[in-house]
């Protein structure tokens, strides 16, 4: 497995500290209240790290080639941030649309597209890239167009699908000391 690092960027422009990690009880309560079961690898990550910015942070979004060409979508996407628990709960409890019944949003890419985990049947636990182009966002019906399965589970996404592109990756991680201050992710 590749070594993955994580840091918690300033939480807001006021340099607030990153929120505290959720307890297992808080996660279980959310599951009961929402009626959704979260995969154990994701729950472990949240209880231990509470989201954050990962490095490496780029991944192939597995967009269908025809859809990508029609919509000018790049093959490689940069992970912006995995939500902290408070943001996760807010995003996933305030979205009543039909499409959210089978997925939860766990973060965003650098273009504010959704990174989701399936909570439904045969696709349970898979990491899904959901492209939020306005043309394909049907607020009154099904929501954004699901584009690609990125990984079979959260662990695979973090440890096998993230990489540094040939051009050196995102400038977010090129600030002095960022990698030295980051902690190594272990699940």
Automatic annotation (TrEMBL):
Cite the Gene3D superfamilies for this sequence.
SMI1/KNR4-like
Q: Which InterPro entries match?
A: Knr4/Smi1-like_dom, Knr4/Smi1-like_sf
Q: What top-level branch of life does the organism fall under?
A: Bacteria
UniProt-annotated stretches for the region Disordered: 1-21
Domain Knr4/Smi1-like per the UniProt entry, residue ranges: 21-160
Tell me the protein's name. SMI1/KNR4 family protein
Query: What is the organism of origin for this protein?
Result: Paracoccus onubensis
């Amino acid at each position: 497995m590749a070594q993955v690092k994580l840091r918690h960027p300033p939480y807001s422009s006021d340099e607030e500290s990153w929120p505290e990690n959720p307890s297992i009880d808080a996660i279980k309560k959310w599951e009961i209240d929402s009626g959704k079961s979260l995969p154990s690898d994701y729950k472990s990550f949240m209880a231990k790290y509470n989201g954050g910015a990962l490095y490496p942070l780029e991944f192939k979004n597995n967009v269908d080639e025809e859809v990508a060409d029609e919509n000018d979508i790049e093959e490689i996407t940069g992970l912006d941030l995995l939500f902290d628990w408070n943001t996760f709960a807010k995003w996933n409890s305030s979205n009543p649309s039909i499409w959210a019944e089978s997925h939860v949003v766990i973060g965003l890419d650098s273009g504010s597209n959704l990174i989701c985990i399936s909570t439904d049947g045969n696709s349970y636990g898979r990491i899904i890239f959901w492209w939020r182009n306005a043309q394909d966002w049907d607020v009154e019906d099904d929501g954004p167009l699901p584009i690609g399965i990125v990984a079979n589970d959260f662990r695979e996404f973090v440890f096998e699908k993230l990489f540094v592109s040939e051009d050196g990756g995102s400038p977010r991680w090129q600030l002095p000391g960022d990698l030295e201050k980051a902690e190594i992710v272990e699940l």
